[in-house]
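>> Question from a student workshop board

For tomorrow's exercise we were told to take the sequence and the ligand below, predict the bound structure, and bring the output to class. My setup keeps failing. Could a helper post the expected result so I can at least see what it should look like? The ligand is adenosine-5'-diphosphate.
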Amino acid sequence: MNILVLNCGSSSVKYQLFNMDEGIPLAKGDVTRIGMSGAVLSHKPFDRPMTKVSGDILDHIMAIEHVVSILLSPNHGVIKDKSDIHAVGHRVVHGGEMFTSSTLINEEVMMHLRNMIELAPLHNPHNMRGISACQKILGDIPMVAVFDTAFHHTIPDYAYIYGLPYVLYKKYQIRRFGFHGTSHYYVAHRAAEILNRKFEDLNIITCHLGNGASIAAVHKGKSVDTSMGFTPLEGLIMGTRSGDMDPAIILRIMGLEELSLHEARTLLNKHSGLIGISGVSSDMRDLLEAKKEGNNRARLAFDAYCYRIKKYIGSYSFAMAGLDAIVFTGGIGENSKEVRAKVMEDMDWIGAGIDAEKNNSTKAIESDISSSDAKVRTLVIPTNEELVIARETQNIVGKNVQDKEVKTSR
Ligand code: ADP
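>> Workshop helper replied:
Here is what the output should look like for this input. Compare the format with yours to find the bug.
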């Protein structure tokens, strides 16, 4: 079975095509700058070099048409016919309280997704646009929605409720949902495999540190807390997002600077975090360079970033009453030895610590960077959200076929 995995954002579509029978990716790529001038399709067949095509790509339908056509192209393609795509798995950011696991997409599911757009106005509409585009282009093939929120549905009520009037939770679902669920699930599960222990026996803290960043407490195979909340703005300091802060601050700034709701949202989501503190960049590589050159605000942003991660690791070890492993993933977690070293400083008192040489030499590959006497293992595990989406899609489509067979044989 070949499964196309799609992650549709506001102006981009990321894709990966898997051959699930062989368990290998056939090709991957992305379309960027959709609806802007100079849109680019970057495509990399598994066994050949990357190729780039630029042109006007006005919307998600055109973007996915380009993806399908390059997957079929004589020079860069990996399949012969559209019908060689057997199912599509879509990343959907928000599943609300309704979708606690992946689901086969049908009209009813689309209706529920439409009804919950208010929960994720910056993400879900683009995910849904991708689904509709696929339905137009690929016709009646099975499609599955895999939700970022689903892995966190096991968070207990005392951890997901905010200290606000309860009626707001009942009326508007104001509660912690958490995001990056497929990534936290994948790396936590891989950690158990690497440690050769049962997933259900372990307390694992997973640090997904990309442009967006979140931490999860995975207790006996279930997410029991996570740093992102009602939206992906809460928790860690991120590239351009503030993370945790006193909510009164925003009320005060809105008054002082006479900001509209839209401007306040932009301030917190686009101009805060690493870029806001440093004034240099939201990109950790630029920040590390500037810090090396003696830029004090870059140093401050780096220190604040690492300190926030450390605080979460501390609180989640207490929440789980124990800790077996800490996992670093995402662009920064996988690549930045500086961030890992700073976060892991002075943790020997809880039995955690890293080996400087192992930390310095690992390069975005699975590795155990713990010091040899550490009881709490520290692992670097590159995330693979696409693979999780492909596997979920395969399971759901397979189950659906079986259900149909049972019904017809009755
Ligand atoms: P996204 O959340 O958009 O998927 P990524 O997971 O790709 O983002 O992470 C992007 C972040 O990873 C950026 O801050 C980038 O600077 C950082 N990063 C990538 N490579 C390195 C590196 N070698 N050293 C430090 N940071 C890196």
